[in-house]
């Protein structure tokens, strides 16, 4: 039997019509995450455009979500920068972190009276890796990755304080990928790599052994990185809000044990988990009968129930999109949703995974013998 404390469940997706949102609510979901198009709202990267034609649709999204009793959560950045900022060095440029803060200030000022939940950066590790292209080096993170990571953390810290000023009861998160730390993990999954994110957020600065390694390899010229100005690490350590981890596997010691110990330094921060089940549709007899996904999701929840009983401070569970994604985005395979869309009739059918979530949210547990679509 799987049991876990009462935490809100969330899904994501593009702007959806009210009938689709009602499906999500009937499945027991309480939060709906919407991604904001930064390049469209701030195409030159400077000066927030208060254009009603661009902002009014987001007001309507909030209206529709609240009408369906779904709490809106706005994700401000998932990787795509305004073109001018990308050409100007992307996240390796410190000034571009300030441009992001201008954007966060504009959005939170516009919607902060009705939107309390904000995700500043969606998958920070992936964004930094795209910028640096060096995360998977055999010798560890390279200079471009470290600079991008530092500026992303700065952007989050600055933005979290601005959002808190514009929102009455803010819930602010930053998201990054949870590493695989088993005995067969690759070098790029070494926990020290993720300590470049976790240690600054916990107020400890950068990991000393990591600084020595990067200096000895010639990546850094000294133990004081040139991209870290005075006061930066104190600012990052004082960032407001919690963290959200992308988790692909059950939360067991073989995968996440060492990482869980690193998390203890952040025990005062609210923790949310983005549970993913990377199973392709080609494995399914029918797109709605995703029983393998249900089994993996069940394993994830059972392991989280055990971890929560040992002190894991879980505050929110984020799933993938509500509806099946139908297009590829940023080179990534479309993510499976909780609801299948018949390609011929366009009818919506909750999948086995959606019905599992519905029953879990309502009852707080689902016995393994209760599986079935």
Can you describe what's shown?
The protein is an alpha/beta fold. The chain has one domain (2-370): Alpha-Beta Barrel (TIM Barrel). It is built from 13 helices and twelve strands. The strands form three sheets. Strands 2-3-4-5-6-7-8-9 form an eight-stranded parallel barrel, surrounded by four helices. α11 links the parallel β7 (242-247) and β8 (271-275). The longest helix has 24 residues, at 143-166. The chain is globular. It starts with a strand and ends in a 7-residue tail after the last strand. The relative contact order is 0.14.
Could you write a compact summary of the structure shown?
The protein is of the alpha/beta class and 373 residues long.
Main traits of this protein?
373 residues, alpha/beta, TIM Barrel, eight-stranded parallel barrel, two-stranded antiparallel ribbon, 12 strands, globular
CATH T-level fold name: TIM Barrel
In spatial order, strands of the major sheet run 2-3-4-5-6-7-8-9
> Could you name the CATH homologous superfamily?
Glycosidases
Give a count of the beta strands, DSSP E runs of length 2 or more.
12
Mean pLDDT: 85
Span from first to last CA? 18 Å
Overall 3D form = globular
What is the number of domains? 1
Q: Radius of gyration, rounded? A: 21 Å
Which residue ranges are poorly predicted, with pLDDT under 50 across at least 5 consecutive positions? 182-189
Fraction of residues in helices?
Answer: 40-55%
> How would you characterize the largest beta sheet?
8 strands, parallel, barrel
Structural class: alpha/beta
Strand residues, percent:
5-15%
Number of helices: 13
- The CATH C-level class name: Alpha Beta
Instruction: Give the topology string: H per helix, E per strand.
Output: EEHEHHEHHEHHEHHHEHEHEEEHE
Label the CATH architecture.
Answer: Alpha-Beta Barrel
